[in-house]
């Protein structure tokens, strides 16, 4: 029988909990925050301190903390049907209803949705779908997937390789050999001086085409992209970018995966990010906002073009040999149905668009002329400021200074939880859709204060 150690929560956490994305050795001495309660946009830790959450958890708690409708829905479903699987053609009423709802909501024609537990496994599912698809078409060599540097597509063995961030590769023998990366549409660092957005977009499309040709078009299966690269820096592409990219993909019969894990269900001020940036995907990945993160659920959505090949391929290979114990879990499905109902009924997409305008005005007001800010980026209710050593050139800070992590740490000490993004010195904002104007003002002003204080520490203010 287990026995309580008598340790404090912080010591229990340090002693027994293996944290994700954490510096393991230093955490043993520093510990972390223990969050015990959330309501609206506010979190409370084990010591009674309150924090405004400027990140909606990890870009995901769109409806805010403590939504009673979602809590009641989950409670009721636990009592009615706590679990059933979806293998061998079995289903539940909720899986059928949710699937129909998602397909009808999609911004481009789609056919079927496969359910998983996270964005990571959903992108792994897409890879297996794509490989099965090309095998069924008699194209066994067409298996490579191209992603973008600074893209984020998950942490499982394959999806971590698709992610274009070195901290997900170093020490893990990743990425796998069938993955390639191209440059992202990051104006600050990648765009040639004097180039227009259209010229920049065409340059990136030309580079993609060159890579496909060099690899061999008969070996390249898919290109995966977020409408806006979130964890990579909140990188918003030029309007000309995806039309130019898609022209290349169609030329070489390369499928397009839209990774909408962060952007779907309103984050960019539209129901789907693909509508904002002009993507016409063959496959889509959803998660996070699907349940407002109240319970894990993801979806891998496929077009009719892809579905017909999978369907016919199963005659050759037998049952589609992929799935998860918790695929379309009835509690998660019930939560998702209620989440989407609330989003549509209460116009949360419109609220995200409205509050996004407030956020971006505040970012411009407090950071546009700041000597340490190289660029302000965002779309809808997601934004970021990138901190630089020289905004005229521009020139990045020495990574060893860890400027953005220090800003995020100081912001938390001041009562606002934001996030330092891993690719550069970028501080992100992605609050719940229910955030108020006054809360947004506190968030932005607090981060500005933190930037000023860190700037003084390094002798730059």
UniProtKB/TrEMBL annotation:
UniProt xrefs under InterPro entries: Aminotrans_3 (IPR005814), Aminotrans_3_PPA_site (IPR049704), PyrdxlP-dep_Trfase (IPR015424), PyrdxlP-dep_Trfase_major (IPR015421), PyrdxlP-dep_Trfase_small (IPR015422)
Keywords of this entry: Aminotransferase, Pyridoxal phosphate, Transferase
GO MF term (any one): pyridoxal phosphate binding
One Pfam family here: Aminotran_3
GO CC aspect terms: cytosol
Similarity comment text for this entry: Belongs to the class-III pyridoxal-phosphate-dependent aminotransferase family.
NCBIfam families, alphabetized: PRK06105.1 (NF004767)
Official protein name in the record: Unannotated protein
